[in-house]
Design goal:
Blueprint: H1 5-21, H2 30-45, E1 55-57, H3 58-62, E2 66-69, H4 73-83, H5 91-101, E3 104-107, H6 109-115, E4 118-119, E5 125-126, H7 131-136, E6 140-142, E7 147-148, H8 162-171
Antiparallel strand pairs: 1-6, 2-3, 4-5, 6-7
Helix pairs in contact: 1-2, 1-5, 2-4, 4-8
């Protein structure tokens, strides 16, 4: 039925979020909500990588690099559960978002540390910049085209869901 491990993982995650966490989300404390997001990240991270249109920062081309999930799975899960539970009514849409969370770019370890989000004492995400703004600071090259592709901004910004961008704005400090 499923071609890839990521497809099985997406279905399992969809069902767990829908059947277990959705009805209880509002009653969860900070640590329980954080654990749900950690579990989502685990399923995304350990069940495949989406390297289509792989971008590499100019700095990563010159030295050590790491793959980075640019659409942060923990934050996406928090957005789904806080603001977008309707996506749990449509598996096809959820599956697309799950796969998008598996998308990676190649950046340096330092750049990876620089783009990581922080949480406050209550475990609530506190963002200094939007994802789009963080990654707009880098110059990217396309591995597929082997050419410079960025004049201004983050080349994958158009893939960030609008609802996520709105959620992000509320968490920028």
């Amino acid at each position: 039925m499923y071609k890839e491990d990521w497809e099985k993982a997406a279905l399992m995650t969809f069902n767990i979020l829908n059947l277990v966490h959705r009805p209880l989300w509002e009653g969860y404390d900070k640590s329980e909500k954080k654990q749900v997001c950690e579990d989502f990240y685990y399923k995304v991270y350990h069940n495949g990588t989406n390297k289509s249109n792989l971008l590499t920062s100019s700095e990563a081309m010159l030295g050590k690099s790491t793959l980075d999930h640019w659409l942060t799975p923990r934050l996406v899960c928090r957005w789904i559960m806080d603001d977008n539970q309707e996506i749990l009514d449509d598996f096809e849409e959820f599956e697309k978002l799950f796969r998008l969370c598996q998308s990676v770019i190649r950046i340096t370890p330092k750049q990876n540390r620089d783009v990581m989000f922080k949480t406050d004492a209550d475990g609530i995400p506190t963002l200094e910049q939007s994802l789009e703004d963080k990654y707009s600071e880098f110059t990217f090259f396309s591995d597929e085209k082997e050419c410079y592709i960025q004049d201004k901004g983050f080349p994958l910004a158009h893939l960030i869901p609008e609802g996520f961008k709105e959620w992000e704005k509320r968490h920028i400090i």
